Amino acid sequence: EIKKSGKSDFGFYSKKLHEKLQEKLELEARLRTAIAANELILYYQPQMDAPSRTMTGVEALIRWNHPTKGILPPAVFLPIAEEAGLIYEIGTWVLREACRQMKSWHDNGGPLIPVAVNLSSQQFHQPQLVSYIRAILEETGLPPQYLELEITESMMVNAAVSVEILKDLNALGVRISLDDFGTGYSSLSYLKHFPIDKIKIDRSFVKDIAQNDNDKAIVATIITLAQHLNMLVIAEGIETKEQLDILMHNDCRDIQGYYFSHPLPAEELESHFFVPR
Ligand code: C2E
Ligand code: MG
Ligand code: MG
Ligand code: MG
């Protein structure tokens, strides 16, 4: 009896596993052609100056408009892209498209704000990173101060190497922001040694801020720290008025989150957030 059911369980799980693997291989194969097929798109999420309700920047967030599955979020395909070595090609596409779009907005009466682009760890450690970012800026005509690169603490496994990369990027004139701040290791020593312009407070600290005094204390401390280090600070993942009020009460004006807007396709960002300048 037991043996039998064990065997059929195994059959069930191995079938599930097989299906999962099959699905992954299909996604990977399809992803290889996704760039050429124009299936990758960037959404843009506003970063708002909360007191004045003005947009001070946008973060570019990748989506895959899959022919049969619809719009897929990065969590579904970026890990596959990293494993399959496609992340370089995708990352370069993201940078070029974000810079092209922002330059086009600047040239056509849109707001003179920067675009933030997420770098993957592999991209960050690519030897040609600085030279190809320089090339993309020249090619698209976007002035470097309008490109912000989002990196995470977890990328900086080797501090000595990372600081060199960051110094080169800094010399190029682009802004560096530290994403998901507080979720990695050694944050404080990084902040001291690295040329970082902006800290993004991770959503995990903001989520329960209205109920949890510890989270509130952590967030207040990060804001003070940023101010003392002369860095910009933005809070991610603000969804409610209550969360917004606490952030503003703690002197954090820069806000990104569903409370103001979900990430939007370019045309929707234009129609909802662009004002004549
Ligand atoms: P991230 O850089 O921390 O981006 C913020 C994520 O939080 C986005 O998810 C955004 O849609 C979501 N978010 C924003 N406001 C709220 C909110 O109020 N509530 C909640 N629950 N979520 C909110 P998304 O677009 O699914 O991206 C997930 C992650 O994928 C990003 O986290 C980033 O690490 C990565 N990613 C996205 N686009 C790219 C890209 O072009 N290149 C690379 N390398 N990574 C990317
Ligand atoms: Mg980010
Ligand atoms: Mg983040
Ligand atoms: Mg993240």
Automatic annotation (TrEMBL):
Give the EAL domain ranges. Answer: 24-277
By what name is this protein known? Bifunctional diguanylate cyclase/phosphodiesterase
Q: Which organism is it from?
A: Paenibacillus hodogayensis
Where in the full protein does the shown chain start and end, and how long is the full protein? 405 to 681 of 681
